[in-house]
């Protein structure tokens, strides 16, 4: 009886209870925010070897009426656990597609692509393919300009279903990038069975450049793998000229990171890409 009493005590620990109710409040707040369409895309430029902006990654932000602008660190995990992250993702997809449709109308922006992060939950929805194709059609976006970023761990839950969906979408032009490659413990053999276009070198490896020999070896291996599979490679988290240079030397041709621009509001990104280069 004494032991049970202890357990009960621990269960009703006021600090823990406070944390639980804070989480529930956040969950409710996310639901409300989704209804009110408070989740907006920030865009981080992606550059090619010539330093031209060729597109952007869409990074979710929560424009909270009281708390201000919140990053995904505040809401993605809770949204995932509450089964709400697919709604966040889909709101990003919707806004990305509408932007791509607008960009299509003007020569300065028509060739830009947008990369949207996808959670496993969305990819595993039975009607995801239909919903996305419908969204593309309704919005008038060019499917070839939409890239979906997946992580390797999310694919392993139900490979066959994921692969089938990816093939269907790719037939319509949508492209795929594998985010966080090399950070999981999975075999890389599965990569050749997927309809991929790009591998993304995680910032955890780039961060260690130029000193860390292990990171360098991993980045080299990813670039070699991409070369033999004929995939594009992009490095994220590039913060210094030195890192940029070293990545170029290894054969990486696409870049993203604070060195080239932080995630920014849509209009700011548009100003940047339509501005005449100052030279
Ligand atoms: P991620 O997909 O790996 O995105 C890259 C993160 O690195 C972003 O953080 C970005 O702002 C940050 N970053 C970019 N360049 C640099 C750099 O040079 N140095 C450093 N230190 N960091 C850099 P953010 O925006 O806070 O997003 C964090 C994570 O949240 C993302 O990691 C992604 O996993 C997730 N996320 C963001 N938006 C969405 C979304 O719409 N849906 C889903 N499911 N997840 C999202
Ligand atoms: Ca990403
Ligand atoms: Ca990443
Ligand atoms: Ca990540």
Automatic annotation (TrEMBL):
One of its GO terms (molecular function) is phosphorelay sensor kinase activity. Keywords: Cell membrane, Membrane, Transmembrane, Transmembrane helix. It is found in: Cell membrane. GO terms for cellular component: plasma membrane. Its main location: membrane. Residues 23-277 form the EAL domain. One of its GO terms (biological process) is cell wall organization. This is GGDEF domain-containing protein.
């Amino acid at each position: 009886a004494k032991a049970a009493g202890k357990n009960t005590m621990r269960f009703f620990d006021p600090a823990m209870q406070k944390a639980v109710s804070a989480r529930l409040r956040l969950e409710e707040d996310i639901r409300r925010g989704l209804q009110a369409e408070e989740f907006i895309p920030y865009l981080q430029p992606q550059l090619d070897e010539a330093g031209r902006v060729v597109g952007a990654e869409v990074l979710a932000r929560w424009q909270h009426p009281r708390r201000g602008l919140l990053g995904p660190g505040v809401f993605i995990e809770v949204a995932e656990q509450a089964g709400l992250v697919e709604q966040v993702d889909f709101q990003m997809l919707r806004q990305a597609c509408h932007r791509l449709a607008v960009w299509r109308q003007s020569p300065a922006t028509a060739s830009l692509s947008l990369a949207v992060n996808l959670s496993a939950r969305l990819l595993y929805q039975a009607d995801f393919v239909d919903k996305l194709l419908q969204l593309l059609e309704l919005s008038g976006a060019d499917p070839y300009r939409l890239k979906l970023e997946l992580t390797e761990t999310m694919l392993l839950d139900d490979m066959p279903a994921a692969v089938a969906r990816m093939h269907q979408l790719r037939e319509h032009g949508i492209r795929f990038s594998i985010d966080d490659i090399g950070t999981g413990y999975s075999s890389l053999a599965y990569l050749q069975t997927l309809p991929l276009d790009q591998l993304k070198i995680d910032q955890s490896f780039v961060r260690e450049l130029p000193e860390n020999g292990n990171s360098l070896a991993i980045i080299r291996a990813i670039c070699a793998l991409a070369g033999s599979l004929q995939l594009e490679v992009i490095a994220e988290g590039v913060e210094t000229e030195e890192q940029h240079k070293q990545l170029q030397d290894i054969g990486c041709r696409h870049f993203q990171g604070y060195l080239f621009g932080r995630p920014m509001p849509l209009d700011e990104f548009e100003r940047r890409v339509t501005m005449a280069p100052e030279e």
